[in-house]
Amino acid sequence: MTYALWIIITGCLVGVTCGVTGSLLVLRKMSMIADAISHTVLLGIVGAFFVSQSLNGIPMLIGAGIVGILTAFFVESLHASGVQSDAAIGVVFTSLFALGVVLISFIGDQVHLDTKHALMGEIAFVPWDTLQVNGVSYGPIAVWMLGSVLILNILLIWLFYKEIKISTFDPQYAKIIGVPIVFVHYLLMTMVSLSTVASFDSVGAILVVAMLIVPGATAYLLTDRFFTLLLISALIGILSAISGYGIAYVWNVSIAGAMASAAGVFFLLAIFLSPKHGYIIRKVRNSRYS
Question: What does pTM read for this prediction?
Answer without folding.
Answer: 0.90
